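User:
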Amino acid sequence: MNIKNREQVEMNSDTDVIQQQSPLKRVALVGNPNVGKSVLFNALTGSYVTVSNYPGTSVEVSRGRALIREQEWEVIDTPGMYTLHTITEEERVAREILLKERPDLVLHVLDARNLERMLTMTVQLIEAGLPVVLVVNIMDEAERMGLSFDLALLQQRLGIPVISAATARKRGLEEIRTAIAGVGRSCGMPVVYSRLLENDIAQLVGLLRGEYVLTRRALALLMLQGDEEVMEMVLSREGEQAEQIRQKVREIAFERRESFHLDLSMERKEVVKRLVQGVITLPLTERKTWGERLSTLAVRPMTGVPLLLMTLYFGLYKFVGDFGAGTLVDFLEGTLFEEFFNPWITGVVNGLIPWWAIQELLVGEYGVITLGLRYAVGIILPIVATFFLFFSLLEDTGYFPRLALLVDRIFKLFGLSGRAVIPMVLGFGCSTMATMVTRTLETVRERILATLLLALAIPCSAQLGVIIALLSKTPGALLVWAGMMTLLFLVVGVIAARLMPGETPMFYMELPPMRMPQLSNVLTKTYTRMQWYFLEILPLFVVASVVLWLGKITHTFEKLVAAMTPLMNALGLPGDAAVAFIFGFFRRDYGAAGLYDLQTKGLLDGRQLTVAAVTLTLFIPCVAQFLMMQKERGWKVSLAIFAFVSLLAFGTGYLLNKTLLTTGILA
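Assistant: Predicted structure:
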């Protein structure tokens, strides 16, 4: 997916209908998380995509345009939802799209392997009177398990189009396009419950007079389930009937307080059970694919932890650290820039431009080209590229949901659920992007805790790669650094979770099938993330170089280094180490690259390098991450995290230096 632009949309959240400038027909993709909605969205829309926050929320919604049978459609990829009775913010946004944007067609995408469980939502969409087409996706995985389906029978029973698909393999796409082009309002099957439940529904339906997107029957059920948002919407439109409706809901809720939710759930399951009878044929003998076996190993602690450690060792340490930060950086920064490009460009600039100040700006010690471009392209680019390639590879296999399940119990110690593992792992790529992704966590408390831990102890890929490359040359240094990061992550996470009020949210996550990654998907994801990252990072490196140049020619930089020298000495570091910390304010990876220069010049021994690496990793977030923190969490929270992290970083560095001197470790 090629993201053209990323925009923040602000609008009053209680506006009844969101006005769209485009007269295009709309198709909304709905369904549980991890059922292939985004893959289908990308297949339909190509590169004509925008991603924006839904009005009044921090939830991102992807929109694109698709040309289908010579007619242009707007395609909306809604956040994952399990039911029309919403719980999470993502589910609320998905329902808001159905209610307020009135799509001409709803494509309900589900996982064929979990057909019976997910059909419950299909029944709700039909009951709500929405124009639904059912896309039974991931058929290739289901067939590999030995399952077979009579989807024609299911279509006959549901009364709506049913399409067999495996969108990751481009299967079923033409049938889906045909269904969209031939959209017609299918009434769907009538859903009938027990006499008692039907009586409850009828009492409420008889009181409703307003016009709604959903059927009155669906609204009655949502109100009886205690859906406050639907209740407010109905009462605001019913005028004189409002109080009578409120009283009737209370009356029924009181009478059925012990059994309504259970009865409704059981009756819907019975409806679905009748629908799938004869539709699904199970294999005579259960077939376990390699993906299922690997999935089982990944979620069990006895096998999942060694698998995680092996993944981190070969993925982060060997591929990103050794190959990205070692081999590629040595070639690009050491050979290409230092030996060839920098000497050549310095000669060209000095020969063409006679003014010393401009020469210094472009090719001096802190020049935009010789420092900024060298850091960005020679050091940072290969590390970030190898990390995002590794991240995209893992993502495409379906490993991350298993990792979330594996670490959920540990993350609960920090007041987080297993879902927080996604921004945490993404933080090893870019903490700015990871801070933005914390908006997918369920509660404000969880988002603040995750933001704090990202700012404190999660190094971005470029910083991580440089530090691994530097410390691996000193026996024990890498172990001390990793131990300190892990210890502080655990201690601060546990204490923060105890001090911050609120409850740890329940954890649930759909497990997609584990599969061999597709090269095209991996390369597309890597390219998209690299494009976003590099467009963000290069201007900041240019700005940082200009600021450092101004600081040098006005002697401000030297004064700042001199002012920080006592602090550096307290950490057991030379005064020149202040340069790396000043760099680190602009970007964490910039600071790590500063350490790289100091170590190359022989200014840091093993102990000093370890202390500097620990302190710099804990040091204040870079400007980009801090601005993202301010955008997501507000000034008060961001400044509090900023102050806490800064004090903890230098306090830890001071104590670590004293400990290493006393014990003689890394001497």
